Amino acid sequence: MSAWLLQSLATWGLPLLFATTFASCLALPVPASLMMLAAGAFVASGDLPASGVCLAALFGSIAGDQLGYWLGRLGQTQLHGRSGKRSGKGGSKNSGTALRRARAILQKRGDMGVFFSRWLFSPLGPYVNIAAGALAMAPLRFTLWAVLGEMVWVAAYVGLGIGFASNITLAAELAQDTTGLLSAGILALGLGAWLYRRLPRMMRRAGQ
Amino acid sequence: MRQIIAHLWQFHRPTLLLFLSALAVMVFFGLRFLWAVFYWSNPVHLHQPPAAWMTPRYVAHSWQVPPQQVAEALQIPAGLPARPTLQDIAKARDLPVDVLLAQLQATLNALQGGLEN
């Protein structure tokens, strides 16, 4: 699949790039970042237009995000209807609490969650879309942060493809290492802060 | 320091282990990054070997040789789409793609030798 997509990029060009980023936002196993790098390389060689490549990748990912969001929203309305029916029997009390708690987290941290799951933690993106829809995040707010995040994603990969056009294997490797380093770093920072706050006061001072 | 680790180990073991794993992953990717920079800074590895998905113009760009010379070496048949890949060209010329890639690689090596002299 991955080899076929790359092989067809020169022939099908922008529509294929659009379809790839669209599919990747729905958690389908397509090599969207590699395709953007290769499209960037084709920009450098003069085979594809720069603006067309950026717009195709951007619109594909925005459309994919919207579809995921509205699917989640649709599913939630149905779920809501069902849990409403069951609430008389007391069966859905716990799930109601969990839902409320998830909604509270989304209210507080949702913007950043949507933004960073576009490019830094991109494997999580499709699930964040569905969750944001299911938890009824405001559509405009979701769209704003999703579009901003996708702009970073597309600019980073297409830009890397153009800049490292003579060797996109190297570009792919550098991109993978950088995102791995950044995401592990953010996780370590968060966990470190959590642990630090749980140290007895005496030890905190001794650690400094 | 030892006291702190002992405390965390006793009361927050799962989080501490997760924290240490995150650090290990950071070290892993950091070393890989450095290795990639080191490996690719070697001029021998600078250019991308020809592959079936590439266009002639991309090969010329990657190897910094004139596009016309790549096009000549490939003997691109008439009537192909606007952006033929090396695969398309091999098919149109009735050649196995591996043979075309090997021929192209030989040409590129020769061209580069010529450009450097």
Please, could you describe this protein's structure?
The complex is a heterodimer of chains A (208) and B (117). Chain A is mainly α and 208 residues long. Chain A has one domain (2-167). Chain A contains eight helices and no strands. In chain A, helix 1 crosses helix 3 (50-86), helix 3 packs across helix 5 and helix 3 (50-86) packs antiparallel against helix 6 (139-163). The radius of gyration of chain A is 21 Å and the shape is flat. Chain A starts with a helix and ends with a helix. Chain B is an all-alpha fold and 117 residues long. Chain B folds into two domains: 2-42; 47-116. In chain B, 69% of the residues lie in helices and 0% in strands. Chain B is built from six helices and no strands. In chain B, helix 3 (56-63) packs across helix 4 (67-74). Chain B is elongated and about 75 Å long. The N and C termini of chain B lie far apart (61 Å). Chain A binds chain B through residues 3, 6-7, 9-11, 13, 38, 41-42, 44-48, 165-170, 173-174, 177-178, 180-181, 184-185, 187-188, 191-192, 194-195, 198-200, 203, 206-207, and chain B through 1, 3-4, 7-8, 11-12, 15-16, 18-19, 22-23, 25-26, 28-30, 32-33, 36-37, 40, 45-48, 52-55, 57-58, 60-64, 81, 83-85, 87-88.
